[in-house]
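Dear support,

I submitted the protein below through the web form. The confirmation email said the job was done, but the results page showed an empty box. After a refresh the structure appeared. I'm attaching both so you can tell me whether what I see now is the final result or a partial one.
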Amino acid sequence: MTDDVLIETQGPIGRIRLNRPKAIHALTTDMCAAVMAALDTWAEDSGIEAILIDHAEGRGFCAGGDIRMIAESGASDGMAARDFFRTEYRMNHRLFTHAKPIVAFMDGITMGGGVGISQPARFRVATENTKFAMPETGIGLFPDVGGGWFLSRLPGRVGQYLALTGARIDGAECKALGLATHHLPSDALDEAKRRIAAAPQAIEAILTELSTPAPDARILDHRDAIDRLFASDKLEEVSAALEADDGEWAAQQLATLKTKSPQTMKVSLKLLLDGRTMPTFEDEMRQEFAVASRVVQRHDFIEGVRAVIIDKDNAPRWNPATPQDVSDHLIDQIFAPLPEGDAWEP
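What the results page shows now:
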């Protein structure tokens, strides 16, 4: 077990509290394993009626995974990176399939792995502090942890827009898009948790009673443009649509895409295309694991982490450098199923 995640019971409630504040609670392999063990224990415990997931302190719920460790592993044999993804995705799957109601409090930064630990929950609470994003294409990765499943089910082409650009959205936008089920003021969260611990059968009523009207969701102002400009599943056609539009918003999105990895933008579009018709979340995790196993050992991920996280020059040199240079054959290789002994299983 690890002190980086605090696990306890509070009467009929199981509590999972992320406790790695200096890293904005970024997930490690041990943290994922500890969460998974708790979920398994509580699944068999008739005294536990609901599960709450939040963070112990600091300005974010969860900033993602331990990217520096994953990149160091990817630059060598990739074993530690694959072990992390295998464990993290098993945790994501346990959360998705758990029989007992789970409430995730997305108060603060909720990115990458933080999305993966909150979106499977039956109740997802956003606040005025929520900063939600899947920014992986900026470091040569892709929106994993179920991103192919969750983003592909958002209205219109919003999922494709979020996956390609890594745009940050706030709590009101999460509520409007269905990424959050409730919008509460942050100063009501302790009261919500107290009431749920006292009456776990009344979670829906408690959260609804404590909810406040969310501010206007700014992303809705751009819904028509998003659906029109991000309509294609081909990256070249998205770029062409943005270039042909003379609006300022389109120009901003085009400039953003030019900073992202062409390879992993194409990976992201295929992930969402496949994810929309994926039979089960287990199948989604199996495919994402195969893709992640390969992407973390490719040039763009190592280079993206160098540019954004290590050297912080924000000048990654992508290879292939343009969407046209990323062949369909390369994408097919990245998405090929793993051999039976290497494939992900729940």
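Response: this is the final, complete result; the empty box was a page-load delay. The first strand starts at residue 5 and ends at 10.
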